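Design request, tokens follow.
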């Protein structure tokens, strides 16, 4: 939904000082043009000044909302207003882009614009996104295009003009990165005491590092003459701080706009242009007009707790689901609105363009695995095998309930996806979406250290609430479902040693423990000693048969090797492994999925990261690839190649044609 508004007079000078009644032109979506006047009188200026107070007068908020409603109605936007109300009732997200060509219009709190029937501010509706755009501005194209997987998150902060919640923000980003399995390395990605030169050096391209895709800046806002800037540390050792205005910030960041796709300015007045008629404009406006795709900033003072809650909600929604920036911004605004203590929710502005659509992704997340098996970290992108996942879980539980040895063989042909079913589907389903075991050790250590440090300062209840999810994960308690632990091993050339290492990962004997032996066939292809093979299998069977009810053993194996399992006995009575592998109680076969699950495996991961498939592409891939032996890894390999050759947000037929030419 586009609200396109320009000034009738002095249209060529967008920063002209508005005096008294100003006439504006509104261009409606249907091509209509209407005019309306807005009186920049003393009452309006006083009301805008009131918004800077920690607890602004509710009467003023209502008066501003009504003034904006009347103005937009006169400009012919009543039809859009009806759509907003209808979508809100249906729970459908509405994106409103305020495309403006007059600087003074950016300082107006359009989020307070009211729906007359309810008297409710539109910005309070849970599915409405407001964003701001300078008319005729352009987003710098991606470089390279398309960008590869990843992109760094850089957190830069300064306490040069007073303390800031740096640890809370650092922890919020670390939490989101951990839960989203996204790289964030404190030593590399946190820039304390930010200054111009330190930031310039941090953004400089390095051969061994990915470029910065998201820059999160935390500092104090600062009045600089007739405008506002940022208070940073100074590169001059004789100065305590330095004021960074819009011109300096633009010069620093504009050269990186091709890969720097989002800037978050957690600073008071970072989207406040200062005195009316100020030609420098606000910090956010300058970065937006420089071509940076998305800028988040605050038009009023921003509370300390509000900034921390915003950062935690924004980054967690962006990375954990993962979700679009638009979805994450609305989630952050709603979280602030729930607090209902100040105007932080209406203070935040998102600068982004209508032509960039409404599902932008500043960080590039790869949705397909190629030839590799899915792991617990990729559970969000593993689709189409729910039936097999539930069957394996049910079979494992049935062994426990009937008192039989808790020993389950998950078998399938090469390329059937058995390892992915277990690792990418079954483990997350049993243990919850994320446990501490699924996090890389370096991230667990960094985040745990931050939690301990932050705990010394007794953060506010709101910040504690925002971080509770990570505390549970780091304590190895699942976020959902049950009380499982697990370990994954492969036999290799010394399976008993690998088994000892896997069992050592069990931390709590009171919790259920699933031992996964992936690719059991390695005992035939890599373990040279027949005695070592049999000793390993007998140890597994003994543990699965022991009184310890918490331990379960699950093995994945190619069906081609079931015949060789007859070479191995599992107990002194001579029971052979092949008999167990063919026993319906102890085995679960993974077969090639049907067309509907295959289609889900094609389409859903793309949708999860904001991508679409060109019309007919999914059906073509199903027809040409879906019936091939070992379809799952082949399918994933093709999809991964299409993702690497994507055009904007679309996986194309042309890219598929090129992949066929390459393989033929």
């Amino acid at each position: 939904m586009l609200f396109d508004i320009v000034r009738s007079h002095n249209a060529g000078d967008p920063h002209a000082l508005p005096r008294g009644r100003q006439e504006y032109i509104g261009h409606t979506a249907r091509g209509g043009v209407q005019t309306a006047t807005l009186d920049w009188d003393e009452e309006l200026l006083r009301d805008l000044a009131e918004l800077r107070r920690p607890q602004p007068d509710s009467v003023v908020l209502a008066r501003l909302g009504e003034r904006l409603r009347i103005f937009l109605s006169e400009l012919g936007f009543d039809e859009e207003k009806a759509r907003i109300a209808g979508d809100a009732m249906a729970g459908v997200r509405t994106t409103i882009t305020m495309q403006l060509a007059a600087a003074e219009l950016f300082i107006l709190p359009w989020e307070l614009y009211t729906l007359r029937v309810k008297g409710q501010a539109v910005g309070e509706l849970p599915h409405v996104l407001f964003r701001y755009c300078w008319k005729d501005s352009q987003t710098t194209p991606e470089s390279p295009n398309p960008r590869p997987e990843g992109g760094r998150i850089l957190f830069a902060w300064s306490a040069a003009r007073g303390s800031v919640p740096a640890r809370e923000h650092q922890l919020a980003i670390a939490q989101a990165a951990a839960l989203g399995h996204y790289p964030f390395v404190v030593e590399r990605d946190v820039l304390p005491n930010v200054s111009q030169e330190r930031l310039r050096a941090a953004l400089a391209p390095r051969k061994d590092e990915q470029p910065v895709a998201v820059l999160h800046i935390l500092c104090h806002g600062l009045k600089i003459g007739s405008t506002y800037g940022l208070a940073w540390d100074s590169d001059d050792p004789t100065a305590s701080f330095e004021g960074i205005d819009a011109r300096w910030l633009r010069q620093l960041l504009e050269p990186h706009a091709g890969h720097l796709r989002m800037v978050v300015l957690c600073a008071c007045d970072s989207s406040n242009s200062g005195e009316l008629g100020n030609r420098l404009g606000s910090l956010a406006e300058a970065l937006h007009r420089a071509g940076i795709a998305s800028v988040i900033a605050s038009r009023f003072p921003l509370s300390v707790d509000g900034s921390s809650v915003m950062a935690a909600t924004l980054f967690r929604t962006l990375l954990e689901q993962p979700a679009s920036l638009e979805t994450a911004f609305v989630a952050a605004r709603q979280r602030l609105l729930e607090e209902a203590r100040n105007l932080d929710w209406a203070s935040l502005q998102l600068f982004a363009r209508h032509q960039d659509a409404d599902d932008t992704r500043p960080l590039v997340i790869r949705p397909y695995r190629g030839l590799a098996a899915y792991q617990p970290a990729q559970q969000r992108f593993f689709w189409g095998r729910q039936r097999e996942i539930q069957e394996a879980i049910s079979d494992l539980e049935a062994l426990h309930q009937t008192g039989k040895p808790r020993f389950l063989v998950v078998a399938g042909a090469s390329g059937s996806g058995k390892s992915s079913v277990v690792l990418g589907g079954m483990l997350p389903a049993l243990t919850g979406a994320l446990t501490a075991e699924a996090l890389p050790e370096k991230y667990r250590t960094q985040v745990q250290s931050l939690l301990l440090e932050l705990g010394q300062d007794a953060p506010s209840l709101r910040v504690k609430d925002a971080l509770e999810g990570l505390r549970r994960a780091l304590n190895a308690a699942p976020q959902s479902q049950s009380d499982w632990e697990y370990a994954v091993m492969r036999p290799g050339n010394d399976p008993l040693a690998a088994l000892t290492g896997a069992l050592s990962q069990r931390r709590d004997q009171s919790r259920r423990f699933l031992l996964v032996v992936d690719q059991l066939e390695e005992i035939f292809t890599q373990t040279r000693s027949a005695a070592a093979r049999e000793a390993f299998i007998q140890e597994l069977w003994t543990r699965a048969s022991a009184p310890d009810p918490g331990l379960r053993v699950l093995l994945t194996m190619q069906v081609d090797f079931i015949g060789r399992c007859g070479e191995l006995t599992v107990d002194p009575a001579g029971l052979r492994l092949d008999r167990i592998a063919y026993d319906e109680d102890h085995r679960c076969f993974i077969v090639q999925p049907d067309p509907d699950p295959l289609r889900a495996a094609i389409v859903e991961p793309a949708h999860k990261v904001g991508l679409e498939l060109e019309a007919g592409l999914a059906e073509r891939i199903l027809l040409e690839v879906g019936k091939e032996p070992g379809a799952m890894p082949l399918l994933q390999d093709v999809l991964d190649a299409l993702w690497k050759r994507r055009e904007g947000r679309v996986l194309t037929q042309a890219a598929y044609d090129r992949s066929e030419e390459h393989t033929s």
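Comment from the thread starter after seeing the answer: thanks! The longest strand covers residues 20-27.
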